[in-house]
Fold each of these.
Amino acid sequence: MNPRDKSLVCLRGEVKSPPLSPAARIDAGFLLRRLQQGESLGLPVSRPMLTLGTGCHELRVKDGDQTWRIMYHLAADAVVILEVFSKKTATTPRSVLTDCRRRLQRFRQLT
């Protein structure tokens, strides 16, 4: 890891097998590593989640017949994982959004 890379901070959820398949875990790890190195990701793998706040995004990881979502925040010195979940509907569950907002607020208070 390069000293200039951002840290990876997990506030909720893990990127591990199971529940993700080994291939999906590798894909997620590759994408998170690119974020740590300062690369900006866009569609189709990542999209802004302005409903959560500035600097928040949703990472999309395909895994066979399901899709995993990794909600993250890009802080100045870290990639902060707010939630990891399997998304089964077109909309993000309200409970996930509420929990992510609460975790982000707590993270900002501590930094």
Note: The longest strand covers residues 78-87.
Amino acid sequence: MKKANWILGMCAAVLFSGCAAEPQKKETRDVLRAEVLEAIAFFKEQDPSIQSFFDNAWGYAVLPRVTKGAFWVGAAGGRGEVFERGRRVGYTTLSQATIGFSFGGEFFREVIFFRQKQDLDRFRSGEFAFSAQATATAVTVGAAAKADYKDGMAVFVMADRGLMVDASLGGQKFKYAPASGK
């Protein structure tokens, strides 16, 4: 058991040592762009009522593929794009650490909507963190119609693949980098 926790701890350290928010290679940025557009289309297909969030939010962050794994101690990470008034303005990375009754692995997609400019600015101000487990809405048909902002944000997640039993405590941490125009 100690060895498994040590290995997971090392994996988390590597994961959270942080990759740059903006992909350095053009090919990687192009792939991320395609994945983000696909994720947006998929969210809208699964729940058409989410369109009102895309239309009315000041901004949003789309993470098309977040990888999560756990064996008591868990870690997750992903990269995405940040939009203001529908225009890409930057990139973000997500890192997550959890502890508790958690086993398995999964991939999921996440969209964070920011109600007003100051909410997006708070996200872009540097290191940003919150407890996603307590605030996320799972996307199903009509879920967005019933959802609302909390502290200026509305968070939606959609499981992609995997199997996970998760009753853990933890939070998500984000880094933001403005698009360099490369």
Note: Helices lie at 2-16, 26-46, 51-56, 117-124, 132-135, 143-146.
